[in-house]
């Protein structure tokens, strides 16, 4: 196997079709999502609900429940049945969500209930799509090169999220820069229509385009490598002494000495084998802990972030006094800043380690949220609060690819759909804890909500401390060791 040079991206010819279609899907769906379920949708729900953050949290919770309710079973089906078939089911759910959202925007009564139903369908579609697509994408990416490919994917997703609000700002410029129902409805409808493209792209993925052993988890690669070394070493044969029937003193002495040497050799070999077995068991246990700790970190981070992230647009509307174009431009700038920070995180991960960079970036982002909470006098100063928010968002949102690449590197291929389904608890946390966030905002205000969020985000980093000691800091070096053995077999 030819070693991959550190920092080198995959040649275009080696990219699976699933990877290329995945890039197109994340780009198109990100733009559509930025229009349809971005700040315009949050503001629409907020005004339809009479300015209640609690109602906004409940609607978001419905989407989170649907996300996890459909996503986890989809992960099991993706592993046992077919990943591409689950993606086609997600495409069907997406079409139903498009229809329901369009109807919800025009019904004269019970609009909040219809919006809940529509977002529930979006959550179901996203859950099914996320479980199957992440697993199929991981199957289509060679192990040891995930950080580069996942970093580009993360940059693409973040950039797409910025392009959606940019288009929204342009639309608000033409329809009116006011938080009016008719103007918000026009922007949302454009995004809903754009979702037809990603729905079609979901039908193009194929299980047959995934890679073979090149995309196995590290534990699978190492097991195969050890088996190949064992088989190639052979079994040392033993022969009877040529003069074994002659009972001379010299012969007896030679036989005794030979027996002693043989016994010592077998004893030493047994000790080495026992030591190797114990070390292998310890390594296996450590490797099994990696996806568990990684998923716990993601779930806790989602629960913490969901208390605030769904309400930032409302914060800028009520506390900072911004209009639609200004809010949309902030939602455009934040992903662009995150793209630059992804590059920083990727290069830093090569030098210091993936988990180490994840921890460092998260700590800085949490600190900036504390600054927003402790200095409310900055809220009325857009030139101060907006840069702080942008920096905070860039630090918090630019490292997800690091933990995803760690998860996929240490989860066996046949179990990836299930673990991605477990990872959906992260998405549920973002939406599910929005109810608590809406309540705290209503009862105690924004400063308290920011401080509670920051505290919970700090707690969510505790499992990462264990990962620092388990996950190798140099992803490429580990892949080369395994690859060289595999190639020699």
Walkthrough of the structure:
The chain has 20 helices and no strands. 49% of the residues are buried. The chain is an all-alpha fold and 489 residues long. It starts with 16 loop residues before the first helix and ends with a helix. 79% of the residues lie in helices and 0% in strands.
Features:
about 500 residues, disordered N terminus, disordered C terminus, mainly alpha, 20 helices, single chain
Mind sketching the topology for me?
Layout: H1 17-36, H2 39-48, H3 53-80, H4 83-104, H5 111-139, H6 146-175, H7 181-194, H8 196-201, H9 218-233, H10 249-309, H11 312-318, H12 324-352, H13 354-374, H14 382-397, H15 400-409, H16 416-432, H17 434-444, H18 446-460, H19 462-470, H20 475-488
Task: Describe, in short, the structure shown.
The protein is mainly α and 489 residues long. Helix content is 79%, strand content 0%. Helix 1 (17-36) packs antiparallel against helix 7, helix 3 runs antiparallel to helix 16 and helix 13 runs antiparallel to helix 15.
- As residue ranges, the low-confidence spans are 1-13, 219-256, 476-489
Question: Structural class of the helix and strand makeup?
Answer: mainly alpha
Beta-strand content estimate: under 5%
Residue-averaged pLDDT:
79
Multimer state: single chain
What's the story with the biggest beta sheet?
A: none
The number of helical elements comes to 20
Estimate the helix proportion, in percent. over 70%
DSSP summary, beta strand count: 0
Q: Give the helices and strands as they follow along the chain.
A: HHHHHHHHHHHHHHHHHHHH
Q: Calculate Rg over CA atoms.
A: 28 Å
Shape: globular
Gap between N and C termini, in Å? 10 Å
């Amino acid at each position: 196997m030819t070693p991959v040079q550190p920092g080198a991206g995959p040649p275009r010819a080696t990219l699976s079709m699933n990877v290329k279609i995945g890039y197109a899907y994340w780009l198109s769906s990100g733009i559509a999502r930025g229009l349809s379920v971005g700040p315009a949708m949050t503001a629409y729900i907020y005004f339809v609900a009479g300015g209640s953050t609690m109602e906004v949290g409940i609607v978001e919770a419905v989407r989170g429940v649907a996300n996890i309710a459909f996503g986890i079973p989809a992960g099991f089906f993706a592993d046992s049945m077919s990943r591409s078939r689950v993606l086609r089911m997600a495409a069907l759910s997406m079409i139903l969500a498009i229809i329901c959202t369009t109807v919800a925007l025009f019904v004269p009564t019970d609009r909040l209930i219809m919006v809940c139903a529509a977002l529930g369908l979006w959550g179901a579609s996203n859950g099914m799509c996320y479980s199957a697509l992440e697993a199929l994408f991981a199957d289509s990416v060679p192990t040891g090169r995930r950080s580069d490919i996942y970093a580009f994917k993360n940059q693409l997703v973040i950039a797409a999220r910025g392009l959606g609000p940019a288009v929204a700002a342009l639309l608000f410029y033409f329809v009116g820069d006011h938080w009016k129902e008719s103007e918000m409805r026009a922007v949302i409808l454009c995004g809903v229509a754009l979702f037809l493209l990603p729905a079609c792209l979901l039908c193009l993925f194929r299980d047959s385009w995934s890679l073979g052993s090149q995309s196995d988890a590290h534990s699978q690669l190492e097991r195969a490598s050890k088996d190949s070394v064992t088989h190639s070493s052979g079994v040392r044969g033993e022969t009877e002494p040529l003069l074994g029937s002659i009972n001379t003193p010299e012969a007896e002495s030679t036989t005794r000495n030979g027996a002693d040497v043989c016994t010592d050799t077998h004893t030493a070999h047994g000790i080495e084998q026992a030591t190797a077995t114990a070390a292998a068991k310890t390594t296996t246990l450590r490797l099994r802990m990696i996806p568990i700790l990684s998923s716990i970190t993601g779930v806790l981070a989602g629960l913490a972030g969901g208390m605030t992230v769904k309400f930032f647009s409302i914060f800028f509307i009520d506390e900072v006094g911004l209009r639609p174009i200004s809010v949309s431009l902030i939602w455009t700038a934040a992903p662009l800043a995150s793209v630059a920070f992804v590059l920083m995180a990727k290069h830093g991960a090569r030098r210091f380690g993936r988990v180490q960079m994840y921890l460092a970036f998260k700590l800085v982002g949490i600190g900036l949220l504390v600054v927003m909470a402790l200095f409310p006098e900055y809220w009325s100063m857009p030139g101060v609060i907006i840069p702080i928010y942008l920096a905070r968002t860039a630090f918090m949102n630019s490292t997800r690819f690091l933990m995803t690449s760690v998860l996929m590197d240490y989860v066996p291929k046949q179990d990836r759909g299930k673990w991605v389904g477990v990872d959906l608890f992260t998405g549920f946390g973002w939406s599910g804890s929005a109810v608590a966030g809406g309540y705290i905002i209503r009862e105690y205000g924004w400063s308290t909500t920011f401080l509670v969020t920051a505290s919970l985000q700090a707690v969510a980093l505790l499992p990462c401390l264990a990962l620092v000691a388990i996950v190798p800091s140099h992803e490429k070096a580990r892949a080369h060791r395994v690859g060289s053995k595999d190639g020699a077999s």
